[in-house]
Specification:
The chain is α+β, with helices and mostly antiparallel strands. Helices cover 29% and strands 37% of the residues. The protein has nine helices and 16 strands. A hairpin with a 4-residue loop joins strand 12 and strand 13. Helix 1 packs across helix 4 and helix 7 crosses helix 8. The radius of gyration is 24 Å and the shape is elongated.
Length: 305
């Protein structure tokens, strides 16, 4: 019987915490055992603002997933996002490679770590150092130089970093539950790897993941990552607009957004009304559903009257 390995991923978002447990059954094969989604607390725009509150949400999601899968989680990969995340496409000379006259796979496996070390900055942590292409003796665009002879090897890398003040809080919240953080993974990169095919990555594709507190973006071209970004704008802004416009509690605004909001108000019947509670009042406010949709509408183009 082949050896199996349990792998866990935890996505700590602004509005929810997701935990998924899988078992590696062979090279490139994975069996999903269980997943759990619970409301999140303690985060603001993708960043941990209250470690204790975040810990409670993470613990609830972990325990629920463990119960469903019938396994105990020892370690996990944790998704990271937030406006503190940034990237740079950089070039590094690898003068320690090809000392024996030929580039080896063992040497290439050490490239991300070497690039991460050379790109370290004060108060920032390198989340990913992703080799894109190599240059051998001024020949650019080489994807896999293993077996090639050279005395001058350079690598073009996509290096993603995050502020250690934010990542440390995230790691603390997870490890306070008793689960060791095996590694941090940029959330839009994980999304891209999950939903794009190799052909789409080769031809060029962008993933835009709109969450509760952030919008995550990753762009692939020629099979590699070219651009990543995290914008501190998400579904929370729509909910907050409803709160402020109608003086209604956040939970009621969120429920109304999910149940009644639309990006195209004209498709909503003009005679449809909804009710919202009002802070400081015992009676609800009734308003046209179209008015609510004006707060969530897409930019006007050629809407019908």
């Amino acid at each position: 019987m082949r050896e199996t390995r349990i792998i866990t991923a935890i996505d700590v978002g602004t509005t929810k915490v997701c935990t998924i447990i899988g078992r590696r059954t062979g090279p490139g094969d994975m069996e999903v055992l269980a997943h759990s989604i619970v409301p999140s607390a303690g985060l603001k725009k993708g960043n941990v603002a209250d470690v204790a509150a975040s810990e409670r949400s993470i613990r609830t999601s972990i325990r629920d997933a463990e119960s469903k899968a019938g396994v105990k989680i020892q370690s996990a990969y944790v998704g990271v996002t937030g406006a503190h995340v940034s990237f740079v496409n950089r070039s590094d000379e690898l003068d320690w490679v090809s000392k024996h006259g030929v580039v080896t796979s063992d040497e290439l496996s050490r490239v991300p770590g070497a690039v991460a070390s050379s790109g370290a900055e004060p108060e920032r942590i390198v989340i990913h150092a992703l080799p894109r292409t190599y240059t051998i003796d001024d020949q650019k665009g080489i994807r896999n130089p293993v077996g090639m002879h050279t005395s001058n090897l350079k690598v073009e890398s996509h290096v993603v970093t995050g502020a250690s003040s934010f990542t440390d809080k995230l790691v603390e919240a997870v490890e306070n539950t008793g689960v060791q953080v095996e590694g941090l993974v940029l959330e839009p990169l994980a999304s891209g790897e999950a939903v794009l095919t190799s052909t789409e990555m080769e031809q060029g594709a962008a993933i835009v993941d709109i969450g509760g507190g952030t919008t995550d973006i990753v762009v692939f071209k020629n099979g590699v990552v070219n651009y990543t970004a995290v914008i501190p704008v998400g579904g929370y802004q729509f909910t907050n607009d409803i709160c402020l416009t109608y003086n209604t509690p956040f939970d009621a605004a969120e429920s109304a957004k999910i149940a009644y909001a639309h990006t195209q108000p004209y498709v909503v019947g003009s005679n449809e009304d909804i009710a919202l509670p009002v802070i400081g009042r015992t009676t609800e406010r009734r308003l046209p559903r179209r008015d609510l949709c004006q707060l969530t509408r897409e930019p006007r183009r050629n809407w019908p009257d």
